[in-house]
Amino acid sequence: MAKAQQPLLYVFLAIPVTYLVALIGFPVFYNLVMSVQDVNLGNISSMIRPFIGLDNYREVIADPSFRKVFINSILFVGVNVVAQIVIGLSVALFFSREFPGAGLLRGLLLAAWMLPALVVGALWKWIFATEYGLANAALTSLGLVDAGVHWLSDPRIALTSVTIANIWFGMPFSMILIAAALIAIPRELYEAAALDGAGAVARFRYITLPSLTATLLAVACLVTIYTMRAFDLIYAMTQGGPLDASNVLPLLSYQFSFQQFKFGIGSAIGTFSFVIVFVVALVYVRTLKKEAVS
Amino acid sequence: MRSKRLSAGLLSVAAALSLVATTAMAAPKTVTLWHVFNLDTDMIYGGIEAFNKAQDEYRIEARVVPATSMVTELIKATATGSVPDLATLDNPVVASFSGQGTLTDLSPLVAKSEIVKPGLYFEGPWASAQWQGKTFGVPRDANTLALYYNADMFRAKGLDPDKPPRTWSELRAAAEKLRDPAKNVYGFGFSAIQAEEGVFQFLPFLTQAGGSIDKLDQPEATAALDFLVDMMKAGIISKDVINQRQYEVANTFMAGNTAIAFGGPWELPRMEKEAKFDWRLTLLPVKDDKNIAASALGGYVFVVPKGAKQPEGAFKFIEFMSDPKILNEGWKTGRLAPRTDVKVENPRWPQAYGIYREQMQSAKARGPHPQWPDISKALQTAIQEALTGAKPSAQALQDAAKKIQPILAKTPL
Amino acid sequence: MSVRIATAPRVGWPYTLIAICGVALYLFPIYWMFTSGLKTSAEIFANPPTLIPQNPTLEAFAHVFARENVLRYLRNSIAIAAPVTILTLVMGAMGAYAMSRLRNRLVDVALVTVLMLQVFPEALLATPMFIIFRALDILNTFAAVILATTSKTLAFALVVLRPMFRQVPIELEEASRVDGCNSWQTFWRIVLPLMRTPLIVVGTLAFVQAYGQFVYALTLMSDQELQPATVGIYSFVGAEYADWHRVMAFSSVFVAPVIILFLIMQRKIVAGLTAGALK
Hints:
heterotrimer, B: D-Maltodextrin-Binding Protein, domain 2, D-Maltodextrin-Binding Protein, domain 2, 2 domains, four-stranded mixed sheet, 17 helices, disordered N terminus, C: 15 helices, disordered C terminus
């Protein structure tokens, strides 16, 4: 790399990073401080509040719903990442065949991602309603189930239902990003491989996938963060119920902060998400290092 | 001595005059109001307009906050110290704010008021804004629950629509008869969602059974919850009520999928427009052996956050909105007056009005308690545990009692 | 360009048919949204559900247009989303380019920092953000919401654009420097044009994200006149009831302009794609 270019690059790097640190650094700090304080409505307006060490964290861990919600979050995020990438990649590959209207139809899919979470939540709540819902109407008319499935009111199924809804909501976003990366793969690579007699599977395995790795990692990272912090959809569908069966960390944090008025606990829960994402971010950056070496 | 008094009197008159003069000349002081009423037919819109016209000392500047965000926004405002002068809060949450000292004590203003007189208010609504002997809010409106029933379905199943169920056993018997799985009709519906609404709809049963929130480990509470659990097991109540908000229960009623449903007066405008059948209202049933009439109390309270710049102006508006003439308008959107001296003449939906007004007599306020959300959460969990079959009612309620008792031991109801 | 089409694998209309069916099925909930705007709220909850509105009424749409200042709401949404898009693209392109070219610890730290700052939901960040913008004295302006929202979209742009910049061959840059371009000119004249497609994609996605902004708008602007459309949509959901047919009607009106915009952009993306192929 030419040295002459470096100063400009550092300026380029500094601008957005400074912006983000300046704008979100204080808010994040504000929350971390609250997580080690005893915060209530009476003292929330001053930053000087009783310091209680890790009491909030202890209380969070002792809370019977926390463990359940923690596991829910991991499952919710994990399944979302895998499903959005696998489905997103398949759909993007399908649309990369240049048939008439491919671009238009692919673009239309993004409409799902444009809706406000409140609306998506309401729509899926209707689809999953036991009595008047479409899901059961479709399944029973196809003869797949005899009695209606209690998609959202059965604690064993609720998490699956909100996960399905969220995959539907987020997949087009992942798909579009993957599609943009697919477009950038030089066509000559495929043509050369085809001349060498490589089949479709081999071309996917040796050309498409390696070219996409960086983007797939980036998308996985984004989906992790997005699903880790989003709760509007679940809030609109189940409010986390029944019995926290579909609750996730950000929603639990919101409920503690804004419904139970236990701000310190809410922030402490936020810190747990923080730790999870920190691990994911570290893994992500490490894989990037490998990418740089190869 | 006498002349001194006289001159003092003159001085004060002069001062008063100059005050009048300056207020008359000065631009009106802005009173910011955050409210949640999104129906443009709500009485608050007419009230604001009339208030701004009637005097020029204050001007109300209103902001509609989406109802689900009101508490969140007020918390943020409290945290940043940028509060509105006046806000409307759902009554069970008022104590959480007042108990932590974040609301202005209105007692001195109420003591001087000609309009806001504690004796004129229904007990429940007034109590919901009190904390430790002080008044932290003035009820804006009130509501309570009653039974909606589908008279056409009653007739079709050979029940007399003029004799709706009056007791738990009659309710259950009627609901069982009305249930029609072939037509997707459930006999009875209520909201059991994991939220405050679920508690709101369960409390009437609890009180009717002779139980109370501080005695959830008693058999009365178990009887109340078992009554509902048994009906769900028998297929009279849909399992989906676990995830239905109140209006969603009302929707299933309006769509003809629920024959009898719990509901508040706020459903009336929609009911009138969309329920294409003979629907009627009746009082909530009583438990056969107890005969305790009971319902839960809902409604909004005007509060003045601490740090408000215009508390006097805010209170002037509260007084204005508490005028029976304005409160009379409330019923158009299904809001009852919180005052006993307001009686709507020739009300819209006269039958419903009569029922709800009678039911108001037995409507009990939730709390008031600063930790009501915690208490409520414990009960929500118990209701859901019992209805999903995760725990027997008695066990679920005992677990809830164990969470609630320490809270009440620290700060009694 | 014509050459390119001739050599493209001819999969043709059968694929189009499959795609139309698939997309239609996938977007069925959106059809549901639109038709729910034409239903009465009782029919929305009818059992069994009605695929086609039985008594379609434009009442909800009429209400949204007549009473709700829908145009003001949409204008506000766009007034927030457009500057966010530009800020995101400018800073995102700079940062991502730097991250793709620099290879040291600092970049790792920067990337992890950027990601970590994205963890907390807006609900928890809005209060301290309010404090910042009050100090800057820009509460109740679009600027506050734009700056706050960009903090979300910018991180996304950095993460997505970084690998895309890496695909630009470094030899091109070296060649341009040999031709006497300085580093800014290289970035501006050589690298950025090659990034047109990714930038359009990221810009579109950032726009959509900002268009759907709710929490920051609600908290940072108390002025009713400035609120974006999402706040209008949420305000139909009352404490005791929700006018779902109106929510759905408003929501349909809300997404329509963006879908149209996207379809226009889609043509550009295709154009960018073919331009890239010609190089």
